[in-house]
Amino acid sequence: MSSIRNFxxxxxxxxxxxxxxxxxxxxxxxxxxxxKQDQLLDNMDLERERGITIKSHAIQMNxxxxxxxxxxNLIDTPGHVDFSYEVxxxxxxxxxxxxVVDAAQSIQAQTISNLYLALENDLEIIPVLNKVDLPSANPxxxxxxxxxxxxxxxxxxxxxxxxxGLGIEQILDAIISEIPEPRTDYExxxxxxxxxxxxxxxxxxxxxxRVFSGQIKKGQAIKFMATQNxxxxxEVGTLNLTQTPKKCIKAGxxxxxxxxxxxxxxxxxxxxxxxxxxxxxxxxxxxxxxxxMVFAGIYPVDTEEYEDLRSSMEKLQLNDASLVFVPExxxxxxxxxxxxxxxxxxxxxxxxxxxxxxxxxxxxxxPNVSYQAYKRKNLNEGILVxxxxxxxxxxxxxxxxxxxxxxxxxxxxxxxxxxMSLCIEKRGQxxxxxxxxxxxxxxxxxMPLAEIVFDFYDRLKTVSKGYASFDYSPIGMRSSxxxxxxxxxxxxxxxxLSALIHFDNAYTIGKKMCEKLRKLIPRQQFxxxxxxxxxxxxxSRETIKALRKDVTAKCYGGxxxxxxxxxxxxxxxxxxxxxxxxxxxxxxxxxxxxxLND
Length: 598
Fold this sequence. Notes:
- By secondary structure, this protein is α+β, with helices and mostly antiparallel strands.
- It has 14 helices and 31 strands.
- The N and C termini lie far apart (about 55 Å).
C-alpha cells in the first residue's frame, strides 16, 4: 500500500499537460523508444489534430527511488471548460494533483476552476511552473501569482520544462514524498469506483475502476450497485500502455475489468462495484452528476438509420458519460434524439466522433438551453422546456425562466473595455472587477447561459486577441422576457429552426436568420418565402426568387396572344408547384444560425 501513489494533472488548455505526461512516461521507462510519440496518451485522431485532450487517460508507471519501488497511477485530464466533467471524475479517483501553470501565460480561468475542484476533494496539490525555457516566460511574476493563489512557499513550486525534460525528477520525487498513500483497508469488503469505460467490439465493455477497499480477483462474482446486475470478473489487470492482466487488484490501485457485458446501458460511470452477495447500499462518494448545459437535436440523414444511430450513441456514452440523450421526433426531420452537451465544443466533438468512429451521417439542429415555463393557472409548477416547440401557448403563460451563470473572465488590462462591451451586449451584468496584477484583470459577470451558447467563446478570443480565458458555473434560474421565434418556409413552420430569444433581440436575429437562409437554400422553379414570426405576427421576410424558364422561346413570331397563353399556363403550373412543392433544407442551414455574426 505504501508504494502506491494516485495522481492527476490539472491545468488550463494548452499549458503542457500531455507533454508533461509524455516526459513522465519516458523518465520512468513506461514506454519503449519504439512506442514513443508526442501526445502519447491522446489516442484519438481528433485530439491529435486539434492539439487538445478530450478524454481522461489512465496509465500506470513503475519508479524506483532510494532502492524502493513505487507504483504511480497517472490520470491525464482535459483542460477545456467543456470537459470539466472528465476532470471531476479523475479527481474522485486520486489523492493528489499536479497543478501545471504556463510560465508565459500565467494562471488562467480553468486553472482556478480545476484547483477548487481538487481542493473540495482534499487532494494534495503540487504546483508546477511549466515552459520556463521559453523566451517569453516570466517565472518570477507567475511564481508570485501561484503563491497568492495557493498560499504555498516559493521553494515548493517546481520549475520545469516538459519539452526539454527539465525538473521531471523533482516532480516524481514530490509525487512520492508529498502525495499521501491511499487510505484503504484490505480486509474490508470490496468497494471500487467506476471512473471510465470503453466499448471493445471483441470483448464487450471494458470498465476502468479504482479500488477503495478490499480486493478484486480474476473469476470473482461481483455486482454493480446501480443496476444490481451480477457478473463474473473474466479478466482484471492494470492499465500500462497496453493492458496487463493480473490475478488480483488490491485496495488503493487502479485497473480495468472485463465481464463480457455487451449492452452499453448496463455500465454507469460513477457506479460502485461490490461483492455479488453483499447487501451494502452505500456507494463510493465524491462523484458528481452531470448537468448538461446545451441541448440540440441529432437526426440521421437517412431515417432508416435511426436504430444504428441509437446503438452508436449508447457506445459513445460509455466512453463519454457526460453525453445525455432521449428520443424525439420532428415534422421536418423525422425520428432522432434530443441530446444534452456540456458546451459547444462538446457538441462539435460528439458530431465529429459519430461521423468518424461510427460512420453516421447526422443533421444537428440549432442548439439551445433548457427553460422553465410557468402557466397562470398553476404558478408553482414549472414546465421544463428543452425544445422551443415544447413551449406552452403564450396566451396562458405567466413567465419563462432561463438559466443564468456566473462567468469568470481573466484578461489583460488592455482589453477590459472590449470584453465588457461584449458581455453587456450578451445581457451580462458585472458583479466584480479585480486587478490580479497591474496587467491582469478578473471580471465576474452574471449572464444568461443562452447568450454564451453560440459564438461567445470565439468572439471573446477575438476581442482580446486570444488573451482572455473563460470559466463558468450555474447560479440558478431567473425570469426573462423571452419569445419563441418560428421560421416559416413556404408558409409551413420548420420546428428544427425555431428558437427562444429575448424580446429585445428577436427582430434583429429573425432578420439575420431569414437573410442567411436565403443565401443557403437552393432556388426552385417557384418563389419560396422565408418568414420569421412571433406567434401570428411576421417580423421579417425574404424571398428566394424562382428559376425562370423561358417558355416563350419557341414563339419566334405571330400574334402576342400565343405568348400570353404560354405565360398563363406557366403561371398556373407555378401556383400548383408552390402548393405541393417541398423545400429541401441543407445541413449548412441548420448550423448557419450559429454563425449569424460572420
